[in-house]
Design brief:
Elements: H1 2-20, E1 25-27, E2 40-42, H2 44-77, E3 94-96, E4 103-105, H3 120-133, E5 136-138, E6 145-148, E7 153-156, E8 161-163, E9 168-170, H4 172-177
Antiparallel strand pairs: 1-2, 3-4, 5-8, 6-7, 8-9
Helix pairs in contact: 1-2
Length: 179
């Protein structure tokens, strides 16, 4: 919308310069002049035509400023790329270490922070429970588009996060920054 506004402003300015350059006087030669020969005479018809073109250029400029402003407001409400943190697939599959309470991968057999060792059978049970009770699913390898309910944009569904309980989709960055 901002680009359309800029284009309309440019068209309005060009049209305004054209209108300012339009003649509003008429010169008469010696034979046709009834009074003051050789002096220009203001023509009301040409002045009206110039005024009409000025009004058209003013309308284009005002419309462009309005659209540019609306586009700037709409763009400020969208999340910026600096505000979105990257989310990896593993962020959905994490658990807290019972010894140090740091986040680690669900499949980890040893905590990378404190070195606590976990029983492999318990880890497998946690993975199975997580898969069965998982509320969120990372979509991979699917075609199509989905609507992110947080930033209100339509994007390819591949790489989005799906919430099974509410039947909604999220971008990875929106999912991490949801509040």
């Amino acid at each position: 919308m901002k680009q359309v506004g800029l284009i309309l402003i440019a068209i309005g300015l060009c049209w305004g310069f054209f209108a300012f350059d339009m003649p509003t006087t008429v010169n008469f030669d010696e034979e046709r002049a009834f009074y003051s020969p050789g002096k220009p005479v203001y023509n009301i018809g040409l002045m009206d035509r110039r005024r009409d073109h000025m009004m058209i250029s003013f309308t284009f400029i005002i419309s462009g400023v309005f659209l540019f402003g609306c586009g700037a407001i709409a763009a400020s409400k969208l999340p910026t790329t600096t505000a979105i943190k990257s989310v990896h697939e593993e962020d959905l599959y994490q658990k807290k270490c019972p010894a140090c309470t740091e986040n680690i991968k669900l499949e980890a057999l040893r905590c990378k922070h404190c070195g606590e060792i976990f029983d492999p059978s318990d880890v497998k049970k946690q993975i199975e429970e997580h898969k069965n009770n998982q509320e969120y699913e990372l979509i991979k390898g699917k075609s199509g588009e989905a609507f992110c309910v947080l930033c209100r944009t339509i994007s390819p569904v591949d790489g989005m996060i799906y919430n099974k309980s509410t039947d909604t989709y999220y971008h990875k960055g929106c999912f991490q920054n949801r509040g």
